[in-house]
Amino acid sequence: MTHNDVSMNHTTVVEFVLLGLAGSRPLEITLFLFLGIAYFFILLGNISVITITLTNNFLQTPMYYFLRNFALLEITFTSTFLPSTLYSLLTERKTISLPGCFLQMLFFYCLGACTLFHMAVMSLDRYVAICHPLHYTAIMNSRLCLQLILGCWALSFLSMSPPTIMVMQLPFCGPNVMNHFYCDASPLLELSCTDTGFIEELLFITLIIILPGTLLVTAVSYGCIIVTILHIPSSAGRRKAFSTCSAHLIVVTVFYSTCIYRYIRPEQRGGQDSDKVLSLFFSVLTQTLNPYIYSLRNRQVKQALKERVLKFSGSLRQM
Hints:
Layout: H1 3-10, E1 15-18, H2 25-55, H3 62-78, H4 82-91, E2 95-97, H5 98-131, H6 136-139, H7 142-168, E3 177-178, H8 185-191, H9 197-230, H10 235-263, H11 273-295, H12 299-317
Parallel strand pairs: 1-3
Antiparallel strand pairs: 1-2
Helix pairs in contact: 2-3, 2-4, 2-11, 2-12, 3-5, 3-11, 5-7, 5-9, 7-9, 9-10, 10-11
């Protein structure tokens, strides 16, 4: 095929077809209800965390600063694909324009990488708080907290933008059907009518640095935390600490295991049904659980939420 042929064919592909999650209408309705409820709780939980940590003076500590930013990140990350997925399930409209697909992929990868960096930073924050409590305030000062947050955002966009932008510049000659519910790089690369070997290698190298790298930081931090917890003299204190730590570790394990198997396993093939299931785990399930496990189980947050609810109900009674 000549260059002119490729260029001419490239202009004929103006949209992609996303096959989605279900092949039958009853299953689509069921998934719409399930994902709609999940998205509602993602928004409710994270907006609650942002509101409570912003409006309560005793929650102005580094831990809640990171949790507030993490909640904002969770909302933006899930909003890159869940609204369009819900719309597709409800209306059976499965097409997405090329610009829309490329933007969705760009923000999905950049915000997904930012989530990994945030989880590593939050684990470091907990490590300093539990293992070095006397130096916590001095180490985790407001300047360092801001630098860490800005670093997460900058690193994620600087690392993930090059390979995703390179995917956007590829020619697509047809077919234009992807077996997925959002625009992902691997099924997109399979639809390109040119050699994508370099982009695949670049994307793989980037992910193999970010995923195991942030996992190592998180695992080492929690490992040190567990060692410190074992030295707590009170058995009740140990049980309480382990309860919180184990809940965090379950979410981290599910998130990282599904991400790693999905994106850096050998001989990866995009568009498999198993890929969609794995994507649901790390992009929807863990995002639904995160605000309730990381924040809303916290005693201070629950107390602040209770006071807010009582204040609101009191104002309603006075109306």
